[in-house]
Amino acid sequence: MQPKKKAILVALCVSVVLMLAKFGAYFLTHSNAILTDAAESIVNVLASSFAFYSIYLATLPKDENHPYGHGKVEFFSAFLEGCLIAIAGIIIVFKSAYNLIFPNIIGQLFEGAIIISATGLINLLIGYYLINTGKKHRSITLEADGKHLLTDAVTSAGLVIGIILIYVSGLVWLDSAISILLGFYIIYSGYKLTRRSVGGLMDESNMELVDKIVKVMQDNRKDPWIDVHNLRAQQYGADLHIDCHFTFPYYFDLNQVHHEISLIDKIVNTHVAHDTELFIHADPCLPGCCHYCSMENCGVRQHQFTGHIPWNTENATKNLKHFDQ
C-alpha cells in the first residue's frame, strides 16, 4: 500500500476508536467540555474518510479529462475539513452558551479526564505522523489532517486542565465557559485551514516556493540564460507546474534553445522537492540586454557587459525583460 494511503487509513481507524472513547467519557460525566471534544472527533472521522478518498483520486495518473492530474482534489479535501471544523466549533459555542445559562449536572470528572488525556496523547502522536508523512510525500491532505489532530490534542490538553479546575473548585459553570473558549479556538483552526485550501483552489501563488525556484535558477545560472521573467508556479497536489519566459541569444538555433531549456528543467527537478513540469517560453535577446549579458565572443554585441542583474522574486515574476524594469 502507498505510504499516503497507509497513513490516512491508520488515522481513520484511530479516529473511530477515539470518537467512541470520547463519547463514552461524555456519557460518563455529562460534561459539555467533554462533549465539545467528542463532537470534534466526529469531524475527525468524516474528514479522514474524505481525505482517504481524495488521496486515492490524487494518486490516479493524468488522463484526457485531467491533463494536469487529479492533485487539486487535495485542496478541496482540506477545504471541506476546515469547514467541518468551523461548523463543529460554532455548534459547540451555542450549545455551551445555552448550558452556561441552564447548567446540567456533571460527575465522575476524574475518570473523564483520564480518558481525554489518553485520547489527546494518541492524537498528538498520529498528528505528527501524518504531518511528517505529508511533508515527505508532498500531500496537503495529510498535513491538513495532521494539523487538525494536533489542534484536537491541544483542545484535549486544555480540556483536561479545565476538568481538573472544575474538580478542585467545584465551579460547575467553568465547564461551559471552558467549552466556549475551546469552541472559538476550533473555529479559528477551521478558518486557517479553509483559507489555505481556498488559496490553492484559486491558484494563489506560493511565494515561499517561488522564492526557492528563483534562487535555484540564480545559483545555477548559465551565460546563455540572459534573464527570466513572468515566472508563475501552480501546485497540483504533489506536482508542481511552472511557466516562465527565458531570454536567450537571438542567434541560437532550435537545438541550442532546446538544450538550454532541458538543462533548466533538469536543474529545477534536481533541487526542488516536487515533481515539476516546466513550460518555458523562449524570448530572443534585444540590444537592451547587452548590458547584463555575459556571453563571451558575442559577434552581435552592441553594448559592453556591465554586470549581471541578480534574479529575485520581484524581477522574475514581472512580465518584462530586465532592461524594461
Walkthrough of the structure:
The structure is a single chain. The chain has 325 residues and is mostly helical. The chain folds into two domains: 3-201, Cation efflux protein transmembrane domain (Alpha-lytic protease prodomain-like, Up-down Bundle); 207-324, 2-Layer Sandwich (Alpha-Beta Plaits), CATH 3.30.70.1350. The chain is 63% helix and 9% strand. It contains nine helices and three strands; from the N terminus they run H-H-H-H-H-H-H-E-E-H-E-H. The protein has a three-stranded mixed beta sheet with strand order 1-2-3, with helices on one face. Strand 2 (239-248), helix 8 (254-271) and strand 3 form a beta-alpha-beta unit. Helix 1 (3-29) packs antiparallel against helix 4 (109-137), helix 2 packs antiparallel against helix 3 (73-101) and helix 3 runs antiparallel to helix 6 (173-201). The chain is elongated and about 90 Å long. The chain starts with a helix and ends in a 9-residue tail after the last helix.
